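Figure caption, in words: inputs first, then the predicted bound structure.
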Amino acid sequence: MNRLIKPTIITALILVGFSCNTTKSTSKNNHPTVVESPFDAKIDSLMSLMTLKEKIGQTVMYSGDLTVTGPVVSNNNQKYVKEGAVGAMLNVFSAKATRDLQKLAVEETRLGIPLLFGYDVIHGYKTIFPINLGLAASWDLEDIKKGSRIAAQEASAVGIHWTFAPMVDISRDPRWGRISESAGEDVYLASKIGKAYVQGFQGDDLSKHNTILACAKHFVGYGAAQAGRDYHTVNMGQDELWNVYFPPFKATVDAGVETFMTAFNELNGIPATGNKYIFRDVLRDEWDFKGFVVTDYFATNEMVVHGYAKDRKEATKLAIEAGVDQDMMSNANHLYLEELVNEGKVDVELINDACRRILLTKYKLGLFDDPYRYSDEQREKEVIYEPEFLEAARKSAAMASVLLKNDNKSLPLDKNQTIALIGPLAKDKENIIGNWAAEGDRNGKAISVHQGVQEYLGDSKIIFAKGCEIEGKDESGFSEAINAAKRADKVVMVLGEDYDMSGEAASRTNIKLPGSQTQLIKAIREAVPNKKIILVLMNGRPLDLSEEDILADAILETWFPGTSGGYGVADVLFGAYNPSAKLPVTFPRNVGQVPIYYNMKRAGRPMNPNNPKEDYTSNYLDSPNSPLYAFGHGLSYTTYQYSDITLSSKTIGFSDTLSVSATITNMGDYDGHEIVQLYIHDKVGSLTRPVKELKGFRKVFIKKGESKTVNFDLTVEDLKYYTADMSFNVEPGEFQIAIKGSSDFDFKHTFTLE
Ligand code: BGC
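Bound structure (beta-D-glucopyranose present):
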């Protein structure tokens, strides 16, 4: 499948009319909000010169022709730029290309307003880091910040001002391909990670030439697409919306994110792109967001297909009224906004507001001082693939790799032993950088696992066999692989998905290893029943590994580990980095358990742990309720023993701080980093509360034989949630609390809030 240009049925837009109600949203909010900034005087004076057409121009974004995710509406980019009819471009990159186009905007338009260049810099620009789900598995906020700082440094050098990241959609459905771009299932973790990305991309000062605008996307609910099918319907109540799907977005607003992107999905009957409630009532009025909102690709037009607007003109009106400032690729604002204003159907103040917000980001970036400051060919040459960046990517790959299983200390590998290195991804340099890999090189630059292992073993101790392809039923390579396994001391199999099996428009109903890969493990297990088989996985989603869990002695989940991935993974395999990553998402036993996540609600007839199959309780006839690997799970080459926690008090008042600590002892032979997790459970609420909620975590380094005491301070702020009356509040009562190394535990301690 070619990621670049996907066929789409959207081109067959259903433009036939149907009568529809004019009240489109539960919200009556139609008013623009005032944004004040130090650039006000400059913006006022510029806007006083602008015609309505020119203001509308700022609200339009077109795509260059290279990397598109939908139909290209117009290839007349240069003409439109010269007319002042475009405010931003996406998919135009390289210092030269951006400089050339910027020149047209600056030198050949009446007012010389510079363009914004946006691009999907998702987990790196050239130096590609692990996919976002992998980065999330590191739980290392400093590392995520560093990686996005590096991405911004590379991207800004080629003329990019703006990345369409981070995606902060809570993702609890492994069928959904875009789970790979997310931080996983948990509200607290995803919120912290969203903030780290924003800080990394935007840095501390947007006017610096190496910081770029971030974009929180996709507002909102995209991760809850029914049945995990991309773009599909989303229906959710206020509890889930406010307590699960909104918080990571709110965290990015608090971190100062400059832009938001709409979601493709409808939310409770109203497409996100036309949804006043989420953009005006919540984002602007309640959260006081000062930046601007861009549609997702073609999303204004898609409101017609959704059956929410009778034609593109009505969709245009709905989007601007909803608080959407810029139109990515629908060519709708360009065609209809002026007419809508002239007919008195759209308030011109809405356009002034949108234009002002967009101009403000251009001022903040310093583009009015020097529109070419990002398009720097010299910097482009110097900064791309800096050795220091590649080294950082190697560390991130090691820190993202989750050791799911390690029976009988099968890992780490011994440098003196011979390894059979088997599998379609062992020498891969194309898939290893994963999906949405911007300008990452798939033709040789990335380091394969084979190269990483070579660094430790040299050539003579590696016996390579591909075994099979990622997809397809061909088993003709099995015998060579079996032969390799027979000649080696240990077997390392590198298996997984093709990079294009996750990401946008890549939903699966079957989340097992594709093709004949599981058959290959079976064949090798049979041929060498007593040899250690280590499974190294590359994939963009939680897989159903129930068979592999039985067949393999050890499993290392590396996601798609990026440009330096092979080195980072080998560092873990040989113990140079003692694995510390923990799952940011639950791995089910089978697809029938989906959606499955640790912070679920409790049923009125919960499963009885002492009699899981008890009749008339919430269980399955044919599967346990528990997942294969729980959220927060991840092994190390050492083991950590957690002492019981101590609480500063059993009862706290509303203005008190509860101090909670546990001592963690490294019991094994390796120094290591442990990710210590704090969970609570609010036992009774005006809305029922999840059975467990992560409320804190810390990555601590503990030397072998040593102990560390880890302390968390909890205040009522940490216990608040959107209660039955939708106020953000805390309710008195009993809470359970624990400090653990994964979400798989039973609470033993409680405290009371009085
Ligand atoms: C995706 C967005 C992306 C945009 C621009 C869309 O198809 O949903 O996440 O930013 O394309 O490439």
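DSSP finds 22 helices and 27 strands in the chain.
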